[in-house]
Design a protein that fits this description.
The protein is of the alpha/beta class. The chain is about 30% helix and about 25% strand. It has one domain. A three-stranded parallel sheet has the order 2-1-3.
Amino acid sequence: MYKVAILGSTGYVGEELVRLLYQHPDVKITHLSSHSYQSEPYSKVVTPELLATTKVIDLGADFRTKGL
């Protein structure tokens, strides 16, 4: 079972990803977020504990890091 968090889940691509992953038997969506967190630091939205136990799919540009 894969645990996933989706950042940028309210846009078109995010909604489609949620729809597709919700139907997948080996995936459990554990966290969803959107632009409502744009002023929050990345470490507050995605904690080290979350990163250690969850696959994170970042669909938003809010938390892009330089060089990626």
